[in-house]
Amino acid sequence: MEELAEPAEPRGRTRTISREFLLPIVLGSIGLFMANSPMILSKLGAVQTDLGDSRLINYILEHSYLWIRADPGHREFWSPPFFYPARNVAAYSDVLLTVSPIYWGFRGVGAAPDTAFQLWMIAISAVNFLVGYLVFRRGMRFPAISSAAGAFLVAFGAPRINQIGHQQLLPYFFGLIAILGIVRAFSDRDSSLSRRFGWWLVATAGLVAQLYAGFYNGWFLMFGGAIAAAWAIVLRRYRARFLRAVREDSPAIVASAAVGALALWPFLAHYLRAARELGARDYQWVRHSMLEPWSWIHTGPHHWLWGRMAGLDLFRELPMEVENRVGLGLVTPVVCAVGLYVCRDRALARLAALVAMSVVFCTTFLPGAYLADLALGIVLVVATRFFLVRDDPRLCLLVLGSLLTVLTFERFPSWRVIGIGFFTMGLCLAESFRVRRDPYRLVVPLLLLLWVGLMLFDILAILMGLALVAPLVVVAEILRIGDRTSRCLSGALACVWLLAILSYPHEPGGLAVGLLAPVLLVPALGRVRLPVAPRSLTIAAMVSVPAIVLLENNDTLWVYVFGIVPGATAIRAVARAGLLVLVPAAIGFAMFFTTPWARRRPILAMMIGLFCIVEQGLTTPAYDKAEERAHIAALSRRVDPSALAFYYRPGGRIAPWVYHVDAMWMSLATRVPTINGYSGGWPPGWAPLMFVDRDYGPTVREARPAWVRDALAAWVRYSHLPADRVQRIGGE
């Protein structure tokens, strides 16, 4: 039998080699072609995607190359020669420092700046895929085919390729390395502390390098990690393991965090200085970059399969439509969701799904009023159920505590919160009537009744109500109607009704909820048993209570992230969170191929996977490299080499981001600094030069009113530049 099994070994080795090496190479090559087809088919004659951000990112990479070569005009990394003579202007955008060495390598072997930029884009996508495969295969321990599928979606998913014109968003492999370190640190619990310390260092180094590569990807990586940690603490089945792992690895975590903070200090120092110079970003401006619910299926007009859908009014009217292209298609999201659902018993699947849903809910416009109404209904039903069925007093106390918390700390309650207050008082009164013959048990509902009453009513109004009701109670006492406790409780009930109607006549919704809901729900739920576990009801109530407060007068949760989470105010395009969702989607995509259904039907599963791969295909715009070279060369000949600096503004209706980047490349060609500039912000005092272009108006000299016409002169005076050494270059 051993001899018969011997010949099978080479075939098994061949199959292993095919799975481990050939499949990733083939799939990665397909992805590289799909992502970069305009450049590949033109034999690098065309550059993706436009004359704005693409050339800006190319400029940043070229500046870093000239910096390492100690070029006279680029000796200060954080102060490239645009917005002259402003300093620290590199911190107005991404610096791409940790991914620049790939560009430096291409420049070092003789490639021109634009050619090196093209090769850099292709190389970055390739590294994204290779590191993604390593993370899925060695970190998350998926089979080879699942790992290749997950890596493909991370590296070449439609949301990432739709944002390829913002090349600072392209590098993500450092973020994947950080995820690898976190996964291995939590999964390798049997290894030594020193080995786990190594994985914590890997995670920290990946995060720091990702921030240096691009702020958006780095910040959203931290945001997603914080959400995952919060869910791991909230979920009972993971809480003990998570906290135990953190406690056991606390020395390693603290040490690696200290190393990371030290490495990140130059980054933070320069970016915090830029933040002080630029000032706080207005939330109303950021609000325009939020996602709509249908943005998650929007793939843009250049998509191979669903491009025509972009012509629908639903998508055309999206604000910042390009940023809203975060859809994976129509089939791929379903496949990813199926993979996460079927494998929901795995901690990775559950946390990935919860992170994805949390990010979607935080960054998408929501029907806040409708969700608040739904949450209110859940709270009322759950509170009534625990009032009627007391099988777990601890869960009952949790629900009651959440109700009392919102009533205590919501200082200016809405009609929904007022309704919850009246509803709680109604249940307290009902409980008081039920235990009226037991004076010891009667104390608790009466104290709760008093507490809620003090939250809802002014003390003078309570005294007035008692004064009005007291005669009726006295009359009932004289006539001996019922027992004394019942008479007092009936008086309290009448007082609550009277105070509610007199104090909140302008809140009919709250009155209806609070005064009628107990009358309707108590009899109804007394006859029907809810087919939901008490613990699930408790979780639903504790989520719904804050949801009422957060959503009823608001259509997005991002306003709370913007105001609370450090660094969130620097996020100008919130829609780019769609790139973070690619990671949990890729995990679900990889898990789909490990499900029992996929293993029983491998051919059908492969066909579905291939369709999902094709569904990521789109063709991005591109511009002619040779034509742009000639254009910049012609403009550069107009620059006076002896000038201290120059300012360029052509006539006509050329978009400002085009001619400002033209000037930056003219500066590279001539080594003369430019007053022009294009970035994520502009330095203090430079704003009038941007306002000149509000309507793509005439040249600076001819602009009106006078303060706009004199914008260049004002900047020269503001910057203390000698006016006779500043060259003005107008239209051709």
Write down the oligomeric state: single chain
Helix count equals: 33
Rg is 32 Å
Across the major sheet, the strand order is 1-2
Q: Tell me roughly what share of residues is in helical segments.
A: 55-70%
Share of β-strand residues = under 5%
Nearest-integer average pLDDT: 86
Low-confidence stretches: 1-11, 695-700, 702-708
User: The biggest beta sheet, please?
Assistant: 2 strands, antiparallel
Structural class: mainly alpha
Query: End-to-end distance, in Å?
Result: 86 Å
Number of domains: 3
Total strands: the figure is: 4
Describe this structure in a few short sentences:
The protein is an all-alpha fold. Helix content is 66%, strand content 2%.
Outline the structure in words.
This protein has 732 residues and is mainly α. The protein folds into three domains: 9-41 and 94-361 and 571-614, no CATH class; 368-554, no CATH class; 623-729, no CATH class. Helices cover 66% and strands 2% of the residues. The protein contains 33 helices and four strands. The strands form two sheets. A two-stranded antiparallel sheet has the order 1-2. Helix 9 (193-213) packs parallel to helix 12. It is globular.
